[in-house]
Amino acid sequence: MSFGNQIIYLRAIPSLMRVIIVHPAVPIYGGAEIVITKLLYWLNKNGIDTKLLMTSVPPDMKKDIAEDHLVIPVKQRNPFPPVWSIDLTEIVALNRWLIKNKDRYDVINLHNYPVQFSATGVRKPVVWTCNEPVLHLFYANPEIKKNKFVMRTLMHLEKFVVRAFVDEAVVADEYNFKRFQDIYGFTPCIVPYGIDYDFFSAGRPEHAIDKFKLNPDDFILLHVGMFSPLKNQKRSVEVVKNLVNKIPNIRLILVGHRDDKYYPTVKNLVSKLGLEDKITFLPHTNREDVRSLYKLCKILIHPVRPQGGWLAPFEAMCAGKLVMVSPEFTAADIIRKENIGIVTEKFEEKILEVYENSSKFLDMQMRASEYVRKNLNWKRYSEHMIEIYKKAMEAEK
To answer: What was the pLDDT predicted at 188?
Structure first.
């Protein structure tokens, strides 16, 4: 990544740089949180004094963070209900902490929704890692119930905050680059995430078979991601319904955090279609289990809409598995361009093709694994982020 001659000018300051990463409280240690723990580790390893600011941290995430790298501000009692998934006391707590302590840091790196609101009034170089524009995605999705007036108001407020207080933005791919420009009106930087190749290539299928009582002779489709209309688990269920007569030993495994709205609708669909003996539901689980499930499955099926889910296909590639994604997946262009997976709307047709002649796709699987090994790692990701921090600092001078 290049930002012109200013990189050379700023090379002398990395050891003096101090960064605070800001992330919302979350119930699970998901993909967005893995990005943060890896970035936190590599920034500190590279001599960048970096801390993480969160009001609460999942226990399994906390164990991956050095104690002196974590800052947890105190929230006041919340007298108000959340406004479209925004805990107002959390935003206030983060905002007050940032305003009070901003001079202890050179750069503020905001991550997931809704922490961009916490930058309000903070005069400091701010970099926003925009994994996806959550408000705009939810507003456009008819399956998600919402108060449109409240949503529109929040969207306008968010645009104002981002334009007024964010100096640089980071997205993972070309799709998000164009979407960000259209929504917020300025140009972000593209930095693809890293992937733990060595970790995900070392999964043990027998571990998944024993722990989850699975049949190794089944033709296993795996769908990894929290239950959400945007992760589109219903489409995976429909695929099984349409293929069960042609692939008698087909099995779908759905792994992910269960919400109280979409998950019950998926369960009901499975029951309605009479597929209880063909679909296995697993809760959000640890990464060791996930890598073993990758190794066990025949295909990672990823019919997601354009929100999140970036890491799973590339993790599965490390395990040498065939990946099948929807054209709406934000990294679909990478997969199509590099010919490292199948991009399709016609999942049934392509899955049947794999079932009847899996050897046809072995070269693609090998190419995909090698692509991840050579191109996607957290060291490179953190180095690109350092250059963006420098750019934000220079812009503030």
So the answer is: 97
